[in-house]
Design goal:
- There is one protein chain.
- By secondary structure, the protein is mainly alpha-helical.
- It has two domains: 198 residues, no CATH class; 134 residues, no CATH class.
- The protein contains 17 helices and nine strands.
- The strands form four sheets. The protein has a three-stranded antiparallel β-sheet.
- The protein is globular, with a radius of gyration of 20 Å.
- The chain binds zinc ion.
- Zinc ion binds next to loops.
């Protein structure tokens, strides 16, 4: 069973209140919302069920989110993510990176020190955002989750809503996160009229994208969509970033800049989806290697859930999929059947 339309509307209303009336001393709450929404997509189901999310998984998401943000902005200093002293999680990741310099998060994850970092982030996540996220307008309104000893439990229907409204949760969290950093006077002089902040905070670096393109070209040099030869290395997010902004290496395909631009933020049509599913399962290991080298998350299982979720959502709301320039088709159940 799915949550009723009334439940979903009420959920959106509360989310709106959370952003307008919540107290955001640090940027942690935005990271927590993004993390639980991502985990709901990766692990949840489209029904009324509850969902347990281990704190360790949430802490790993925090580290993934904050990792690139601990690089000095414009080569000056690390952006301050708290009113007052720097946020503890940013400090912990910065310290970890300075004592155990690893070029990428993926490589760092194989070290023993990394466990210590996870534990320290875990302690802060439990003490701070998990405890305070649901404080709205001076009172507590438990509408998202109940915290347990080792995990939090999303209440019935919440995973459904987080999946259904994932792009909205992401966009709201990101825009408030950016505004928080811009509004912190400790960052002031660095950010005057800066338009690169969003890509610095959340997007894959150009260098990593180039490495991915180089890796993908070793697997084939044709455009995923039109089959033409690609001369310039251009990569496309198969599931658009506007839908799911976390970069996983299995989501990248080679594409002409013109095909990429034309497809834009839409989902690709069934013929492209079929080809992509085949490509990912045939090149699973090579793609993981490309991700390792470029320092991008490699997680075929998550990517599979994300794609399935994206198309199922699109079928529910009657979205159309991109075939080629100015040609679209309806997304229906036959898309979802490709997974069976
Ligand atoms: Zn093309």
């Amino acid at each position: 069973m799915k949550p009723t339309p009334e439940f979903q509307l009420e959920f959106l209303g509360k989310l709106q209140r959370l952003f307008s009336e919540g107290d955001f001393t640090a940027t942690y709450k935005f990271a927590l919302l993004i993390s639980i929404a991502d985990l709901a997509v990766e692990l949840g189901r489209d029904d009324n069920s509850t969902l347990e999310l281990p704190y360790k998984e949430i802490s790993l998401k925090f580290i993934q989110l904050f990792w690139q943000q601990t690089v000095p902005f414009k080569e000056e200093h690390v952006l301050v993510q708290n009113y007052g002293a720097q946020a503890a999680i940013v400090k912990a990741i910065s310290e970890f990176r300075s004592t155990a310099p690893s070029p990428s998060l993926l490589m760092a994850q194989n070290t023993r020190e990394f466990n210590k970092l996870v534990n320290s982030v875990n302690a802060t996540v439990k003490k701070q955002p998990i405890q305070y996220l649901q404080n709205i307008g001076g009172g507590e309104d438990v509408f998202l989750f109940t915290p347990g000893k080792l995990e939090l439990t999303l209440l019935p229907g919440v995973a459904y809503c987080l999946r259904r409204f994932h792009p909205l949760v992401q966009q709201l969290s990101r825009s408030h996160w950016i505004a928080h950093i811009k509004g912190n006077k400790l960052n002031g002089h660095l950010l005057s009229q800066d338009n690169d902040l969003e890509s610095f905070l959340f997007e894959t670096s150009r260098q990593a994208l180039t490495e991915i393109a180089t890796g993908l070209r070793k697997l084939g040099s044709k455009c995923h969509y039109c089959g033409g030869v690609v001369t310039e290395a251009d990569v496309d997010h198969f599931i658009p970033r506007s839908l799911y902004p976390r970069d996983i290496v299995h989501n990248f395909v080679l594409a002409h800049p013109s095909c990429n631009r034309s497809k834009s933020d839409t989902l690709a049509a069934k013929q492209h989806l079929y080809k992509w599913l085949e490509f990912v399962s045939m090149n699973k290991d090579s793609l993981s290697e490309i991700g390792q080298e470029a320092g991008i998350i490699t997680d075929k299982e998550s990517m599979d859930s994300v794609a399935r979720w994206g198309y199922a959502n699109a079928a529910t709301v009657g979205s159309r999929a991109w075939i080629r320039a100015s040609q679209y088709e309806s997304i229906d159940q036959s898309y979802i059947d490709l997974w069976n």
